[in-house]
Amino acid sequence: MSEKIQIGTIGLGLMGSSIATCILAAGHPVTALTNDITQKEDAIQRIEAFLLQLKDEGIIKEEPPTIIQRLTVTDDYTDLKSHSFVIESITESITEKKKVYQQLEAVLLPDAIIGSNTSAIPVTLLQQGMLHPERLFGIHWAEPAHITRFMEVICGSKSDAALAEKVVHLAENWGKEPSLLKKDIRGFITNRIMYAMLREAFYLVENGYATIEDVDRSLRNDLGYWITFAGPFRFMDLTGIPAYLSVMKELFPDLSNNTATPLTIEKLVQDGAKGVANAKGFYQYTEATAKQWESLFVDFSFEIRKLAANYPQNIGDQ
After folding, report:
1. Which terminus of the chain is less hemmed in, N or C, by CB atoms within 10 Å?
2. Start-end of CATH 1.10.1040.10 domains in the chain
3. 0.85 cut: is pTM over it?
4. For 46-67, what is each residue's pLDDT tens digit?
């Protein structure tokens, strides 16, 4: 598989545009399919703005107006027929994703790879009913997709292992540090661990042990201090394994195992809260401060990318 093959993307929302930006920045021609062609110019402007961010940060050398020439926006699936790799990034709905795969399989060659940007749906479920289920993989991106180095490549029960390695290799050429899940599991790696953390965070707040602010403060200044340098297993190596076993024996029985969703977030969603997107969330925002937090998050994402690049995962083995 050529390093600069033409890649198709499905969906041009915020995440889809960010994914297209990442792939364009890596030198690939991209055909982006949207179900609303009237949004074409807005999507192009959004992608060009993302490319300008990368240029300003020194991550790419090419000029954005040059790179954007490699982008084709269409609403016609037949424009993808010659592509050997297509990435779907639409709403997190099994039904809607399967509709996309049906249309893709009607035009793609049998050996073309299809990737699904899903954060929790088991890939095995998405493979059901496909003509060539072995070519479908989960490709879990983090937001902003054009900045972060995160990616998980997930095999379903019928995925071809050799094709999975091709996806991993391509992702590395996109500037990612991909993880490969050889077996399918709901939530994959990061979401399973993050949601276990969120459950405990809500448990502490809703039972009066700490405020939202205090939980955030503790995690920023402990977990946030080391997690970019080392994952949990490396961190245990660095700080002494035996102590963790001792704490596990005492703490595990006391951790929350509640399967009900927290009332705090249920109420927020019922009240229409979306976070900084509509200036209503766990914290108080004005429209101006919400935009400021969004801008700061982008700045931080670039800064943490630079820091992580100085300390790649296996730097100590070199």
Report:
1. C
2. 193-317
3. yes
4. 999 999 999 999 999 999 999 9
